[in-house]
Amino acid sequence: MSAPATCRWGILSTGWIAGMFVKDLLVDPETRGVRDIKHEVVAIGSRSVESAQQFVNQWWPDVDSNAHKRIKRHGSYAELFRDQAVDCIYIGTPHSHHFDTAYAALQAGKNVLVEKPMTVNAKQAETLVRLAREKGVFLASALWTRCLPSTLKLQEVLASGAIGEIRGVTSEFSIDATGLVNRDPGHRMVNPELAGGALLDLGPYSYTQLALVLAPHGRTSYDKLPEISSSMVKTSTRVDASTTATLHFEQSDGRIVAGTMTSAIDRHTPPERCVLISGSLGYITIHSPANNPRSFTVKRYGDSHRFWTHETEHDATTYNFGMPGGIFGFAYEADEVARCMRDGKTESELLPLDETVYQMKIFDEIRRQNRLEYPAPIESFDVSSL
Ligand SMILES: NC(=O)C1=CN([C@@H]2O[C@H](COP(=O)(O)OP(=O)(O)OC[C@H]3O[C@@H](n4cnc5c(N)ncnc54)[C@H](OP(=O)(O)O)[C@@H]3O)[C@@H](O)[C@H]2O)C=CC1
Ligand SMILES: O=C1OC[C@@H](O)[C@H](O)[C@H]1O
């Protein structure tokens, strides 16, 4: 077997998720049975060099180690874009800053993995996708759930016909952040200036869980949006505390199947169930959380199943997934990106760009229906000043 290919990462921003992503990159891929690629963090880019230095101190505390000494600390994002040692830049800024930062990185010819949601709106996402394709560089939104072994296994189970014809999906990813509005109204989750709110922050997961079943890539035409009915409750900071949307997706056999997604920042999703996939022969329950499911259960109805009884289900199978090496789960998307780098691919089949743009169009429509607008500068897709 040939030597593993190394992906050399540049980390842009030094907040919470940037640290979690790095933590996963530092775990030896062999612990999860991955022998074809390796990860190396070669540079940190921050708005201040002190913050970049602090980040290195936190994640590579051994000051005498080669890694600690070797990692470049850039005091501006522009310096990171110029760093020739970097293969791919991971962007972990707030939503409001995904578009401008990713645009500048792509413009500099860099491969980019940008946190979810890719942008604030679909026009911005389309602009990034167009630029990446023009430049021939890699781009993906970091919807890590799509790369998890549990997600891939679920696709297999569905394709096997285990629950028959799909009749409906409900999906929720919510986190109780009540109190944040009063305690810390500037926090990115509730601050409109940073494009906060449940839909953009947590909706990518509740949407993805139903889209993987009802609008899978390769079997969905992105020309037409599903029919959408949605509602929102807003916070006093004027972002959405909760959003629920029912989407009617046309299936390849012409049937219309409804999926309902909920994301909220004012409650927890209960652990037992975040996603319910109902089929003609049974159902699948995905256990919370929807961003990182560790198990799901498939139950098939018994032959004597009747609509008035609940006693006849049988054949329950639960699939469990660990997180080897102590990873959080981001490592799997990092592996996928590293393989794309190695193979010269500019797009990942697990994180398809057209699907990402489609999702952003659906979110635009949900926001339109509920009059959720962000400040003009962060909705802008004008690139003349970038
Ligand atoms: N995949 C996942 O599971 C998760 C994804 N996320 C996503 O990651 C992104 C960041 O979230 P999180 O890490 O929690 O956020 P943090 O606030 O902890 O970090 C954001 C970082 O972005 C940089 N930044 C650039 N401009 C600004 C600005 N105007 N205000 C604040 N920070 C700025 C800062 O880094 P610096 O000072 O170094 O420039 C800052 O540390 C979001 O898009 C979120 O949706 C978040 C959590 C989990
Ligand atoms: O996975 C996540 O969990 C917590 C959220 O605030 C975050 O943005 C999201 O990506």
UniProtKB/TrEMBL annotation:
Its EC number is 1.1.1.179. Keywords: Oxidoreductase. Gene3D superfamilies: Dihydrodipicolinate Reductase, domain 2, NAD(P)-binding Rossmann-like Domain. Residues 152-284 form the GFO/IDH/MocA-like oxidoreductase domain. Residues 9-139 form the Gfo/Idh/MocA-like oxidoreductase N-terminal domain. It catalyses: D-xylose + NADP(+) = D-xylono-1,5-lactone + NADPH + H(+). It holds the Pfam family GFO_IDH_MocA_C3. GO terms for molecular function: D-xylose 1-dehydrogenase (NADP+) activity; nucleotide binding. Belongs to the Gfo/Idh/MocA family. This is D-xylose 1-dehydrogenase (NADP(+), D-xylono-1,5-lactone-forming). It comes from Rhodotorula taiwanensis.
